[in-house]
Amino acid sequence: MIIYFSDIVTRMNKVFYLFLFLFIATACSEKVQVPLITKKTTKYARFLSIRDEKNGIYIDIKHPDRKNKEYKFFIKKNSNGKVPDDYIEIQRNNPSFIVFSTTHIAMLGQLNQLKTIKGTCASNLIYTKEIKKNIEDKAIVDFGNESNPSLEKIISIKPTAIIYSGFSAEFSKNKELQKLGIITIPNFDWKESHPLGKAEWLLFFGYLTGTEEAARKHLEIVQEEYNRLKKSVQGLSNCPVVLSGSKMGDFWYAPAGESYMAQLFKDAGANYIYKNTKGTGSLAYSQEKILVDAKKADFWINPGSPSYELVKMSNPKASFLVPFREKKVFCYTKDSNKYWELSAIHPEWVMADLIAIFHPIELKKSNLNFYHTLD
Amino acid sequence: MMIVHVLSGQISLNFSDIVSAFNTYDATNTNHIIFFEFRIPRMTMSILSGSALAVSGMLMQTLFNNPLAGPYVLGINSGASLIVALTLLTGIPFFATDFGLISGALVGALLFGSIILFFSFYIRSHISLLLIGLMISSFVGAIITTLESMSAAEQLKSYTFWSFGSLQQTSLNQLPLIIFGCIVGFLGSFLLTKPLNAMLLGETSAKSLGIHIRSFRIWIIAITALLTGTITAFCGPIAFVGLAIPNLTRMIFQTQNHQYLLLGNLLIGGIFMLTCDTIIQLVEPYFVLPINAFTSLFGAPFVVYIVLKKLI
Question: Which chain B residues touch A145 with a CB distance below 8 Å?
């Protein structure tokens, strides 16, 4: 077998060109690896994860009901930086938002960022006076119903992001809106079952507006106060029995044992009658069952009406419940808008109210933030 | 069936509870409260709603000579739904209460019953009246859809729950009024059995037998409006009972004589609703099943069966 030198050179050339091709191919790839080291800034929130890394801020939002469904957003720290794969970039220069929940208004208000709100919905449910005035003055657009906002109105405002509640499916036309530079971001704060987890979504708005330090400071104060209040009632021998919820249609809907309200009752040193049930949503029980289960109830929280008269009209059979007869029913309905807007960022206020109701020796009842005894 | 119904439910009651509730009612005894305040009204409403809607359906089917006619053709259900939707949209808390819903539904049922009654004074043809009733239902349905699209989530939820129908909303002290309204309707129907029988021969033959068609029609509509309006006001819209039960009664009793059909509809309508509600009570611990969904689950296949039977 004769091997010619020229054959060897030809083969070596082929190998060389192959290596050169591979080198160029990998060098031209724009893949940016997501760092493995994580500096997670959220502690209690289950559906929000924010990592503050050298190259940028990673915001991962998990869908609470759809397995493996995540929404990923990235904020560059360096204008030349690259956006990792699967992440959508959020611009922080001159942010402007359309927000579809009053809790979003409260969070932006806490960070002094109300000026970033260009649109919202259901103006009759808003508590913040400044926003209500701006809606009246037409400086902020009221989209009415969150489930069917006018897309053309959205485009005319050209916000940097739309923050929606994610009640149902994806925001309609989100891909088309993204092409116009409008990002749609679901906010699942309402699905968080821990009161401090709900409050932690303040960080999300902090990072969106560059006010994360202010958000962190507020959260530290909230967490400290919440945990202080919780500790003050731990170990108390007197745990009042609590009923919660109201009748809708033929059934009574009560918070399940792993829900937001159940967590609050537990932390406030109360014995909630359905504390041992599973789930983070509502339980649907017949009124007969409620009548039997709530025989020993000391308090009824959140009947959904502001007066005993209206409760009786909504549910004539409520008069058989012991807390109703003994006038120990409490609700936030004197100013529902205030409760729904502010309770998310001030869980310590809700805690304080509940402790004042359940353990009046510990805290004075007269300084309730949201709750009131029914008229 | 009544006994089975009263003993069924998430909280178990037995005979001794019922006997002691009658003998020595104790307002602090939970079982006594459950029996008198929950089970008795629910059982009574099951019987009354089934009977009243079945009789209304029978009247409509004879008047329009159509086995697919029912109380809904007069637009009374739609009228009640419209007023309830309008009042809920105001956002006034009173209208979201049981009392508010009953008031709104009663006003709507009476108003639209009166509208159809007014038309029946001037329109001679049954078909024209049927068409007007159906068009009113359609028109009202469109308004309700528009209102729903403008409603906030809480209002929409209240309206949706009302539209599920309910046999549990009525309290013990409301029963006498409902029973009175139904008895008036049943007695009126009984007095009209001869003209109803005559209508089976056709309008011309009925006229020749001395039946005054116009006043007969007005009475039929008034009685149907009273029965349907009362039930819709206190229970919400309940579908298919008025359509399916009269046909089922005719199949069982094998007669066209309205004296027997009336009694049959009273009996079978009441038993049917009692049975549906008993089943709902049995599954209550496991899942929520609205009465309207259950009656439609039975009624819809039955209507298909009637249509196919006519075609074959």
Answer: 149-152
For A236-373, CATH number out of 3.40.50.150, 3.40.50.1980, 3.30.1060.10, 3.40.50.1220 equals: 3.40.50.1980
Question: What is the pLDDT confidence band of residue A6, given thresholds at 50, 70 and 90?
Answer: low
Contacts of residue B30 in chain A, CB cutoff 8 Å?
291-292, 295
Decide if A125 and B152 are in contact by the 8 Å CB cutoff.
yes
Using a CB–CB cut-off of 8 Å, the residues of B that contact A are 9-11, 30, 33-34, 37-38, 91, 93-94, 96-100, 149-152, 157-158, 161-162, 164, 166-169, 171, 284, 288, 290
CATH architecture type of domain A48-221: 3-Layer(aba) Sandwich (3.40)
- Amino acid identity for residue A45 in this structure: A
Q: How many CA atoms lie within 13 A of B54 on its CB side?
A: 29
The DSSP code sequence of A50-69 is EEE-SSEEEEEEE-SSSTT-
What residue of A is the nearest CA neighbor of B35?
Answer: A288
Give pTM, 2 decimals: 0.81
CA dihedral angle for residue B203, residue B204, residue B209, residue B213, rounded to 10 degrees: 40
What is the spatial distance between Cα B222 and Cα B215, in angstroms, rounded to a whole number? 10
Stretch(es) of chain A classified as CATH 3.40.50.1980: 48-221, 236-373
Note which residues in 199-228 of chain A have CB less than 8 A from chain B. Answer: none
Q: Among A122, A249, A286, select the one facing B10 at the smallest CB separation.
A: A286
At A350-359, the pLDDT tens digits run 999 999 999 9
